Known about the structure:
A: nine-stranded mixed beta sheet; 11 helices; 16 strands; about 30% helix; B: eight-stranded antiparallel beta sheet; six-stranded mixed beta sheet; globular
Amino acid sequence: MSEGYILTERDLQALAIGAALLGTGGGGNPYVGMLRTRELMRKGAEVRIAPLDALPDEVFVGEVGGIGAPVVGVEKFEQGEECLRALRAVEGAAGVRCGALISGEIGGANSMEPVITAAQSGLPVLDGDGMGRAFPEVQMSTFMIYGAAPAPSAVADEKGNVVVYQSVVDMYWLEMLARGTTVQMGAAAGFAIAPMRMAFVRRTAVPGTVSQAIAIGHAILQARANRRNVIEEVCKATGARVFFTGKIVDVRRHLVGGFARGKAVIAGTEGWAGSEAEIAIQNENLVLWIDGAPAVVVPDLIMNLERDTGEPITTEMLRYGQRVAVIGLPAHGLLRTEAALKVVGPAAFGYPELAYRPIAEGVPA
Amino acid sequence: MKVLREIGVAELEDIATGGAILGTGGGGDPYVGKLMAQQAIRAHGPVRLVDVDALADDALVVPVCMMGAPTVMTEKLPQGEELVVAFRKLEALLGRTIDAVLCGEAGGINSTTPFVVAAATGRPLVDGDGMGRAYPELQMVTFTLHGVSATPMVLCDDKGNSIVLDTVSNAWTERLARAATVEMGGSALLAFYPMDGATAKRAVVRGTLSLCARLGQALREARAAHGAPVAAVAEMLSAEVIFHGRVRDVERRTVGGFARGTAEFEGVEDWAGHRFALEFQNEFLIAYRDGAPLVTTPDLITLLDAESGAPVTADSLRYGLRLKALACASTPAWRTPEGLRLIGPRYFGYDLDYRPFRPDAA
């Protein structure tokens, strides 16, 4: 049974880069969270990343993260202790204390929130998460899909308001109620889900994703330092492949019910000259069509990288004229079961006409 | 605890009528709340009404209330137990027995909802409320003026969802609870503003449930005696009949969850040749006579059918109705600068200063 490792400042930087990539365009920008964590670490806070087998079955695990629209998250900074307040509120409501934290969503800003809460509370962060990527809604995590209790959960804002969902009908009601609250709070808030037993988390978490994000980040940093092709190195580190290369020619965005929805149109270059790709966005990249045919479909991962630097581009940063490589990666097996596809498959996002077909290459058996 | 009197099934009829009069055009139809309260009284026995002074200073008092759009509240009925669930959950959260139930809003549906909880839990109900009328938002209570926090608050729906709020201000409670209510389908049940007896004695608008009962009784008896129901209500309320006329035009729009609009009247009989208009936002907020503002919130404006004296809500206004408008002074707590910041004409977006209606009456 390994104890895990202490997160270094270098790891933290890599985690932010890797998490941004796994954010599949959404999940919020981890950069601000990285700066906040670094500040806490420089003041002496220590964060341990613990493997999923490091703690006994009966320990309670708290899932914390930000909830809201990524566009807002970039502009409306957190006060700093939103997630900690939400965690304390659910601990109080459930009458338990948590012995570890986990990210619900490794992709984007929510890779950092448990690390920040860990730096504030001294709890370890488990090496895993509930998505292996980013998703826009609360119920879209392996924890919820495989039966975690949706209550008591809590939302806390930067002003000091805390709303506890003491009992809810199901995970969809939790999403609906928490989203309504978040919109009123200014579309960005801290969130904590009902504490889960370690035994349950071990079975349902997408394993190793904190370390995976750090490894991706290091691969990108090293490729840059050694002037190697970053996109190739990312593909090597993750098993992803390039599906399209081109120039952004159109981006549409609108804020609907607290979500950033829209689409991006890409005119092909290099091997794809003459082709056109379109990406549907709902906070995250959801579907990639190439010349009208679906090429990568949610829950598989679609990521836009800046063509020259290999920097992941989040959906709120997409703009006309950017040159991008679109890479695709299969989702973890826990997201590809029949039960999971009901919650995170194309139909759940409003594309009932699309059947989920795992992307061909790199799919583990 | 000295009991003023016991309220049974029959008295609730009068209280609901009186609640509609104090509803000042809004507050939701007391009918559904009345049926719920009558059912609870049949099942558990009458409700003991007590004066706020009968409470010990350290007693724990909790108001209960239904929140939402009045039109939804009449159509989407509660299961029946949610109010009691909200009350019990708040009690568990506070970790001590609640000694008495309080009415948040004596105008409209919430004149009757506290009877449901009082009957089901056997706790006494305080004779009074937090408004002395009806208002659309939950921070608009005299409790706010006395520094009582609306939270911790429990909010329940008919489906089994329940939420606990802990907020930085009562205005934030309103905002967050409103959003939850909308998600829950437009109506929800709450227990909130937990306070001690000493605070209740300072903050409660006193005697308003008895006033509801007396208003209902006066109206009922005047009708039965073929007397003058409107005059009977006006006398009981110390109100003045400020107009008698026919509805000439009603303009309505739904803005930010409120039923806003204007109603215009042309005078008949003593008021022939005169004009009258009302601005409403769920409740009647401003009355103009011959183009000049005559009564503004927080003073009460209520409409009664000119013949039967039946209270008429803003939703049911339509062309041709012959109505009498009554106005009376609000509770003195609202006529202060702090009170007017919470519910004065400017809060509701009207470019008018409050001018007390019959200042001597306060």
